[in-house]
């Protein structure tokens, strides 16, 4: 891979040799630098690990190293990139060298040649901060990646590097949310017929889509892959893969615009002979289900199986959720059973979609059974699922079960479960409808202790409770209290 990338990289400088120094002074100074570089490399290669750093400090603690010397030492150690990186960090941490952009660039190149991606990206971040800190202004911060790119370009052939160094610069910009600079750098590199790896292109598409929307992500895709011009692409460019198209589909789906991009993206997949995977189908099916087109989603599910792509839990959950949303609980349960028969373990999402569907359908018994099964399987439901089930139980007059469910969740996972206002409201309404106003008042006190203020809905629940049991006196007092707080039907308390 590295060989292929290196061959595709055109000359950037006119004719420097791999052994040429990045910079040089007079003849005497050059000879002195050569001696320092040779001595340091010899010590680092030949002495024991624990003694060599102390020995170097005893030799050069007073004079330190220039950035030019550090660069040559780094290049002299490139056959042992981890040792070169240790020297770079040690000289920096020991204040023996004030590294500049050229020494940073040389170190990045050495790490890139060795495929030490994480270390190289970390160093690029440091280089960007170095440049940004020189002027301290916003302009300097925006220009920093450009300066790092220029330094990498200048030292590329001297360091006998690989285009991966530039790829990692783009990734570093994306990690730092410097989206504009990442796009700009990719454009500059493409003019030199240097292309990011497809994984970096995909990350760029995902980041741009998240920051600027699906349409912007699609525009970057077209720019990177020449996908909007009838297929004409610059020589040496790369082709998108299934993750590329999944990133685009997901971006449109998150905006509720699956129809806008779905067909176009599927056509491009065929054009690039890129076979969809299970996640591709899951995204497409999710868009169809959210648009109420459950039958079309089921057709895609069958197509996936016909294509020999085995559905995973995400694919099953997508269709199960669509069926639940359409009120087809029988078919949802059938698909859930088929999922388990295929040897695919249900996930927490599988249960939560079914519980929500049963609650909506009024089958609180089925929802409660699934909740118990979910707990037996070791899953913890989301708070929204717990709230939905409590509300459904209260609507069916099973308030005591709802209260037990709340207590159970509050006692689980170290008491970290935080009940919502809606959970308290459903239970208080249910208790008051059953005439258990005193129990409702205890629950309301607990609710207040958790920071939830009594609003008009809470007051109306207690008013109804007192009136149901014929206690007009307490109902009147509560109404006066409500009015004194500025509460009336349809109004919330002042906060």
Measure the end-to-end span: 63 Å
Shape: elongated
Order of helices and strands: HHHHHHHHHHHHHHHHHHHHHHHHHH
Number of strands: 0
- What kind of sheet is the major sheet? none
Low-confidence stretches: 1-26, 490-495
Which structural class is indicated by helix and strand composition?
mainly alpha
Report the helical percentage: 55-70%
Q: Classify the beta-strand content into a percent band.
A: under 5%
Number of helices: 26
How large is the radius of gyration? Answer: 33 Å
Instruction: State mean pLDDT (0 to 100 scale).
Output: 87
Question: How would you sum up this structure, described in words?
Answer:
Helix 6 (101-113) packs across helix 8 (138-154), helix 9 (164-175) packs antiparallel against helix 10 and helix 17 (313-325) packs parallel to helix 19 (348-361). It is elongated, with a radius of gyration of 33 Å. Among the domains are: 1-8 and 27-196; 442-495. It has helices at 2-7, 27-46, 49-60, 67-76, 81-93, 101-113, 117-135, 138-154, 164-175, 179-191, 198-212, 214-225, 242-254, 258-271, 278-290, 294-306, 313-325, 329-341, 348-361, 364-376, 383-395, 399-411, 421-433, 437-449, 456-468, 472-484. The chain contains 26 helices and no strands. The longest helix is centred in the N-terminal third of the chain and has 20 residues, at 27-46. The chain has 495 residues and is mainly alpha-helical. Mean pLDDT is 87; it is low at 1-26 and 490-495. The chain starts with a helix and ends in an 11-residue tail after the last helix. Pfam families: PPR (PF01535), PPR_1 (PF12854), PPR_2 (PF13041), PPR_3 (PF13812). Residues 1-31 are annotated as: Disordered. One of its GO terms (biological process) is RNA processing. Keywords: Repeat. One of its GO terms (molecular function) is mRNA binding.
């Amino acid at each position: 891979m590295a060989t292929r990338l290196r061959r595709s990289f055109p000359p950037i400088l006119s004719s420097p040799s791999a052994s040429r120094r990045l910079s040089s002074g007079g003849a005497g100074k050059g000879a002195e630098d050569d001696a320092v570089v040779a001595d340091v490399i010899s010590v680092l290669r030949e002495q024991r690990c624990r003694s060599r750093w102390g020995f170097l400090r005893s030799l050069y603690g007073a004079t330190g190293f220039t950035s030019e010397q550090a660069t040559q030492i780094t290049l002299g150690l490139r056959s042992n990139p981890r040792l070169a990186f240790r020297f770079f960090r040690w000289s920096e941490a020991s204040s023996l060298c004030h590294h500049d952009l050229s020494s940073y660039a040389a170190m990045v190149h050495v790490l890139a040649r060795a495929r030490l991606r994480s270390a190289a990206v970390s160093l690029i971040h440091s280089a960007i901060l170095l440049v940004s800190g020189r002027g301290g202004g916003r302009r300097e911060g925006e220009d920093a990646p450009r300066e790092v790119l220029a330094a990498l370009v200048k030292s590329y052939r001297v360091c006998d590097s690989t285009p991966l160094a530039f790829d990692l610069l783009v990734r570093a910009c994306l990690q730092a949310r410097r989206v504009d600079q990442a796009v700009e750098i990719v454009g500059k590199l493409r003019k030199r017929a240097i292309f990011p790896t497809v994984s970096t292109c995909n990350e760029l598409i995902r980041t741009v889509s998240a920051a600027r929307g699906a349409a912007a992500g699609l525009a970057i895709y077209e720019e990177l892959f020449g996908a909007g011009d009838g297929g004409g692409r610059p020589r040496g460019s790369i082709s998108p893969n299934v993750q590329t198209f999944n990133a685009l589909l997901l971006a449109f789906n998150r905006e509720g615009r699956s129809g806008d991009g779905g067909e176009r993206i599927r056509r491009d997949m065929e054009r690039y002979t890129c076979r969809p995977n299970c996640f591709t189908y899951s995204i497409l099916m999710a868009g169809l289900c959210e648009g109420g087109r459950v039958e079309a989603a089921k057709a895609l599910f069958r197509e996936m199986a016909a294509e020999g792509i085995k559905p995973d839990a995400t694919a099953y959950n997508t269709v199960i959720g669509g069926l639940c949303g359409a009120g087809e609980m029988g078919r949802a349960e059938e698909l859930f059973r088929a999922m388990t028969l295929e040897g695919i373990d249900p996930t927490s999402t599988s249960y939560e979609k079914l519980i929500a569907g049963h609650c909506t359908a009024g089958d609180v018994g089925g929802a409660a059974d699934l909740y118990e099964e979910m707990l037996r399987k070791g899953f913890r439901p989301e708070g929204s699922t717990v709230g939905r089930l409590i509300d459904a139980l209260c609507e069916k007059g099973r308030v005591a079960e709802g209260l037990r469910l709340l207590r159970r969740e509050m006692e689980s996972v170290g008491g970290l479960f935080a009940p919502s206002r809606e959970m308290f409201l459903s239970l208080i309404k249910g208790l008051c409808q059953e005439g258990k106003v005193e129990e409702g008042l205890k629950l309301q006190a607990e609710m207040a202790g958790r920071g939830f203020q009594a609003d008009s809905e809470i007051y109306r629940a207690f008013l109804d409770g007192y009136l149901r049991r014929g206690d007009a006196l307490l109902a009147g007092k509560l109404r006066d209290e409500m009015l004194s707080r500025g509460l009336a039907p349809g109004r919330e308390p002042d906060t």
